[in-house]
Design brief:
The protein is an alpha+beta fold. The protein is built from eleven helices and 17 strands. The chain has two domains: 289 residues, UDP-n-acetylglucosamine1-carboxyvinyl-transferase, Chain; 144 residues, Dihydrodipicolinate Reductase, domain 2 (2-Layer Sandwich). It holds the Pfam family RTC.
């Protein structure tokens, strides 16, 4: 990391030096995770930031995608920051936040930049900042954020995973209330119609800081103190078209029974879950023997490729573990004259893949054996959410009183420099996005992470 000093004067405070942080956007996964976490931390700590070599190793065109630009511009707007280079395909972007978070200037109703990408990835960049800004405003009412874009997009969170997994897990960890409303879905295949989602971000608990300002209190997020527990209930969500099918389903031998694609997947996913759980005989510490399995949401879609499955396991410790699958198959599916066998296999493959990945999320025999021998444990949340908690883990000891944020930041960095970050959470469960998030936190906050 390279830094160059920038003098700035906080309100009623002596002049302090603020680091200009330079981030290599091609590090680790070299994509959106690096960009979103870096600009969010820059906005929270008032450190000017430049990200270079953005997506330099990715195949095809390099630089910022439209979803990255939407996240950067949305955060710049709510934080009153200056941005240079936030254009599609740009390889370098500079983000210059103001000297402090001005809670009074944050709009209580905010409509973000429309993105053809996932609205939930944009929200990931906004959420940590809005938690603090809403608290510093002194208003107990939530900030309402309306975003337009994709709600069911490949390699991104969906409305269903956010509402059924992300928000309940935050609640278990002690976060303030977060509500979400879905007004319209948008998929990355089929007819183009912008999705619309509204979030209601409630403020953090607060107190009066040593300088008379407002002190934000993030919940203590030591995931080493949390265990996953065992699965006590499984919910299944199916979004699929109601096209009639004629092929034989797993629950009937009567070829004349008329089922839709949606009903076929409801029946097939639950049957496959029960079969795999019975066949694999997972340890009783992982899942109850006769765990109840049911349909949480079943929704008809209007286009033949709009198929989505989410499986959510409720744990005895209050967390939720999930895997989901979005259809990526042949666009001729259920439209052109394909054989019943072909159509059946395409639909069944989506459900079976989701079940297979969910079972692996619950129990990976090879990793569990290593973890047990070495005194480590599986993360309390699933792979899809673990990386999203990193920024809060590193910020939870830091508060931002009004007018003294940079002084606190410098003290925080010095005090944390040699802090032990060793954990008995098994890092072999961590994905590349998790490693990217930890690296960015280390670069911006100046912490050495194990």
């Amino acid at each position: 990391m390279n830094t160059e000093p920038l003098n700035a004067e906080a309100s009623c405070k002596p002049i302090v030096k603020s680091r200009h942080i330079y981030i290599n956007g091609n590090t680790h996964e070299g994509g959106g995770q690096v960009i979103r976490n870096a600009v969010t931390l820059a906005a929270l700590t008032s450190h000017p930031l430049t990200i270079h070599s953005i997506r330099a190793s990715r195949p095809g065109r390099k630089g910022l995608r439209d979803a990255h630009v939407a996240a950067i511009k949305s955060l710049a707007e709510v934080s009153n920051s200056i941005v240079e280079g936030a254009e599609i395909w740009s390889m370098r972007v500079t983000f210059i936040p103001p000297d402090k978070i001005d809670g009074a200037a944050v709009k209580k109703v905010y409509s973000g930049h429309t993105t053809p990408g996932s609205v939930f990835l944009t929200f990931q960049a906004l959420y940590p900042y809005l938690l603090h800004a809403g608290t510093l405003s002194g208003d107990k009412e939530p900030i309402c954020v309306e975003l337009q874009g994709g709600t069911n997009i490949h390699y991104s969170p969906t409305f269903d995973s956010i509402s059924q997994v992300f928000i309940p897990n935050l609640e278990t960890l002690g976060f303030p209330k977060l509500d979400i409303e879905l007004h319209e879905r948008n998929w990355n295949t089929g007819t183009i119609k912008l999705g619309s989602v509204r979030f209601f971000v409630y403020p953090l608990p607060s107190s009066t800081g040593p300088n008379g300002g407002i002190k934000c209190h993030l919940p203590k997020i030591n995931l080493d103190q949390h265990r996953r527990g065992k699965i006590t209930k499984i919910d299944v969500t199916i979004l699929a078209p109601d096209n009639d099918i004629s092929w034989e389903t797993r629950g009937t031998t009567d070829k004349e029974d008329k089922f839709t694609v949606r009903k076929f997947l409801e029946q097939g996913v639950i049957a496959e879950l029960r079969n795999r759980l019975h066949r694999l005989s997972l340890p009783s510490c992982v899942i109850d023997q006769d765990v109840p399995i049911g349909i949480h949401t079943s929704e008809s879609t209007q286009y033949h490729t709009h198929i989505y499955i989410l499986i959510v396991g409720h744990t005895s410790t209050g967390f939720r573990i999930s895997r989901d699958e979005l259809f990526e198959g042949d666009l001729n599916y259920l439209v052109n004259a394909c054989s019943d066998v072909y159509n059946c296999l395409l639909a069944q493959a989506v459900g079976d893949a989701c079940v297979r990945q969910f079972i692996r999320e619950l129990y990976d025999r090879n990793l569990e054996e290593f973890s047990r021998r070495e005194g480590r444990h599986q993360p309390c949340v699933g792979r899809a959410m673990r990386d999203q908690l990193v920024i809060f883990e590193e910020l939870e000891e830091l508060y931002f009183p009004q007018g003294s944020r940079k002084e606190d930041m410098s003290e925080y960095g010095r005090g944390q420099e040699n802090k032990e970050k060793n954990t008995i959470e098994d890092d072999r469960y961590w994905c590349l996005h998790m490693k990217s998030a930890r690296w960015v936190c280390g670069e911006v906050l100046g912490i050495k992470l194990a």
